[in-house]
Design a protein that fits this description.
- It contains 6 helices and 6 strands; from the N terminus they run αβαβαβαβαββα.
- Strands 1, 2, 3, 4, 5 and 6 form a 6-stranded parallel β-sheet that branches.
- The longest helix is centred in the first third of the chain and has 32 residues.
- Helix content is 46%, strand content 16%.
Length: 228
């Protein structure tokens, strides 16, 4: 009788341990399934909170709505002091931004710039140059999606040229340029009329689509990494 009870106890303990192991595995899988995926939006206009920042925010809002795992953050460079690259990095406002870019949960970036004389803003250029630490000693942004949004005072005010310039620059970081959907295949092209983009539903649609594409690509890459 004692032997039978011992055997049953042994089986019961073994079954309990197996169940606990299964639950732990399931909990780990669930935790991994909902691991945060962060999308950063960088507004590279010297005018804080204006049309470029609003366009990038529209893209981030669309990205966040795609999946519960998506977390977004807008970094508005307006009013900040950020100079271009130099052999001795200056102690300016970029010092507080760099750690956010180095965060391992960052899975994608959306960069916005106004079109100045049919080119990217000097602030956007300075920001990209100062991202050099993200390349060495390790390519921290390698294989991650980047979307670009450009604002301009005219429908054909150089927005697509700005998008191309930023995409090419981000290739140096190993990033994967992600376009939008028709009618803006390259990214978000937004029209600003008297410092207002709210009436440009076409342009805001391209910004949202760019955000969705970045988020969708980031989710697919995260799934591929889990499967691997």
């Amino acid at each position: 009788m004692n032997k039978e009870i011992t055997r049953r106890e042994f089986v019961g303990v073994t079954a309990t341990a197996a169940l606990a192991g299964s639950l732990a595995t399931a909990a780990t899988a669930a935790e991994g399934e909902f691991k945060p995926i962060k999308i950063l939006g960088i507004a590279c206009s010297p005018r804080k909170g204006m049309t470029t920042a609003k366009a990038v925010q529209a893209a981030l809002d669309a990205a966040k709505g795609l999946d519960a795992r998506i977390q977004v953050e807008l970094i508005d460079l307006g009013g900040l002091n950020i100079v271009g690259w130099s052999p001795t990095p200056p102690q300016d406002d970029f010092v507080s931004i760099l750690p956010k870019l180095q965060d391992p949960t960052v899975a994608g970036i959306i960069i916005g710039s106004p079109s100045y004389f049919r080119g990217l803003s000097s602030l956007s250029k300075a920001f990209i140059e100062r991202c050099a630490p993200l390349r060495e000693p390790k390519m921290l942004l390698d294989g991650k999606p980047v979307g670009v949004i450009a604002t301009g005072a005219f429908r054909n005010g150089g927005q697509e040229l700005v998008i191309e310039q930023i995409q090419v620059a981000m290739l140096c970081f190993g990033m994967i340029p992600v376009g939008g959907r028709p009618p803006a295949f390259q990214g978000g092209t937004v029209l600003s009329t008297k410092d207002d983009i709210s009436g440009d539903e076409l342009g805001l649609g391209t910004a949202r689509n760019t955000g969705l594409r970045v988020a969708d690509f980031a989710l697919k890459l995260a799934g591929a990494k889990r499967e691997g």
